[in-house]
Amino acid sequence: MTISSSQKKGGLHKGVGLPALDISLAFPQATPASVFPPSVSDYYQFDDLLTPEEQALRRKIREVMEKEIAPVVTEYWEKAEFPFHIIPNLATLKVAGSTIKGYGCPGLSITGSAIATAEIARVDASCSTFILVHSSLAMLTIGLCGSDEQKQKYLPSMAELRMIGCWALTEPDNGSDASSLRTTATKVAGGWLLNGQKRWIGNSTFADVLVIFARNTTTNQINGYIVKKGTPGLSATKIENKIGLRIVQNGDILLKNVFVPDEERLPGVSSFKDTNKVLAASRVMVAWQPIGISMGVYDMCHRYLKERQQFGAPLAAFQLNQEKLVRMLGNVQAMFLVGWRLCKLYESGKMTIGHAGMGKAWISAKARETVALGRELLGGNGILADFLVAKAFCDLEPIFTYEGTYDINCLVTGREITGIASFKPVVAKHSRM
Ligand SMILES: Cc1cc2nc3c(=O)[nH]c(=O)nc-3n(C[C@H](O)[C@H](O)[C@H](O)COP(=O)(O)OP(=O)(O)OC[C@H]3O[C@@H](n4cnc5c(N)ncnc54)[C@H](O)[C@@H]3O)c2cc1C
C-alpha cells in the first residue's frame, strides 16, 4: 500500500473509514445504557428500611437520572467534558447541601443523602462525584466550619447549583499523607496570602468557590479558606487522560500570593483534626457511591443476559452466568446493609472514624469484585461505555483511591481496634540497608 502525501498529513485513517454505526444498529440484540435498565437489585427489599420521605426521594432521583441523565453521559464521559447543560436537571434533585439544615439546604437525613448518592451513582458515577465534592465536601465544610455570615453568603446559591464548589486538600507531594500539606497561609493586613499547589481537585477548573486548606505560617496548623474564582494569583488546569470519572474535571491548582480577606477564613478549622468533622460524613457518602455503581451494573447485566442469545439460548440460561449474577446480587445486598448501618450509627452519634473507614474500604473492595463480574458477563460489550459496565468498572478505580485509599481506610480502622497507629513505617535505627 502506498501512502499519499495527503494521508501522511492528515493521518492514515482520515477519509478512509466510515463513521461508527449507531450502537443500536451495530448491535441490535441488546439495549444500551442510554435506555437505562429497570432497578432489580433490591432483592431483600431494603426499601422497607427507608422512611416514606427517603423512598420518595429515591424514586424522584431515579426517574430524573434514568430519563434525563442516562441518555447524555456516555458521550461526555468519552469526550472527558462536563455537560454543563445538565446542571439544571441535577438542581431539580434538591440534594446539594444534603444534611445541612437552613440556608436553603434540604436538611436530609444522612440515610436520605446516602440513598441519593447511590441513585445518582447507579446511573453515572461522575455525576455523583460532581455532587459529592460540591455538597458533601465544599458545602459541608462551610456548613460545619464556617461563620454564620459565610453560610448566608454561599450556601443558598450553592444549594441551587447556581454556584459550584470544590474542596482542595491534596497536594502533589501529599496524598495519603495529607496532614503534612505544604501550601502556606501567611497573615498580612486585612487577610492572608496563600502560596502553594493542589492536585486532583474535582470541579476546580470551573468552581466559583474553592475551599482551600493551607498551613498557617504563625501557628504551623492547618487552616481553611474560601477563595473565589478569578482571585489574582489563582489558576487551575485540567488533569488530562484519566481512565475513570472522566466527566469530573479534576484540576491542578496553583496559588501565587492569593489574597484572602479575613472574613473568608473558616473559623472552625484551626487544625487538621477539624477536617475529620467533614470527612467522617463525606466518607459515608463516598461509601454509597460503589453501592450505587454496583446496583446499576447488576441491573444492566440482568437485562443484557436475558436479551443476548448465544448457542440458541439467552445468556441468562447458562449456569456459569447465573452464578455470577447471584454473586453480584449477594454483594449488593451485603454492601447495602453495611452502608445502611453506617448511616444509622452516624445518625445516633455512635459512628467512629474507624467505622466509616472500614465501611468505605470494604464496600469499595466488594464493588470492585461486582463490577469485574459484570464486565465479564457482557463479553465484548463489557469494554464499551455504551453498555455502562465498562464505564462503571473504570469509574470505581478512582473511588477505591480517593477519600482515603483502601489501605489508608483499613489503617484508620486498624488503629482504632488495636490502639496502634501504623501509618508511618518504623525505620530500624541500625538498619544495614
Ligand atoms: C479522581 C480523583 C478525584 C479526587 N478528588 C479530590 C478532591 O476533590 N480534593 C482533594 O483534596 N483530593 C482529591 N483526590 C485526591 C485523593 O484523595 C488522593 O489521590 C488519595 O488520598 C491518595 O493519594 P495519592 O494519589 O497521592 O496516593 P499515595 O498517597 O501516593 O499512595 C499510593 C499508594 O500507597 C499506599 N500508601 C500510602 N501511604 C500508605 C501507608 N502509610 N501505609 C500503607 N499504604 C500506603 C496507598 O494506599 C496507595 O496504594 C482525588 C483523587 C482522584 C484520583
Automatic annotation (TrEMBL):
Signal peptide: none annotated. The keyword rRNA-binding does not apply. GO terms for biological process: fatty acid beta-oxidation. Gene3D superfamilies: Acyl-CoA dehydrogenase/oxidase, N-terminal domain, Butyryl-CoA Dehydrogenase, subunit A, domain 2, Butyryl-CoA Dehydrogenase, subunit A, domain 3. Residues 51-160 form the Acyl-CoA dehydrogenase/oxidase N-terminal domain. Keywords: FAD, Flavoprotein, Oxidoreductase. GO terms for molecular function: acyl-CoA dehydrogenase activity; flavin adenine dinucleotide binding. PANTHER family: ACYL-COA DEHYDROGENASE, ACYL-COENZYME A OXIDASE. This is Acyl-CoA oxidase/dehydrogenase. It comes from Macleaya cordata (Five-seeded plume-poppy). The lineage of its organism: Eukaryota, Viridiplantae, Streptophyta, Embryophyta, Tracheophyta.
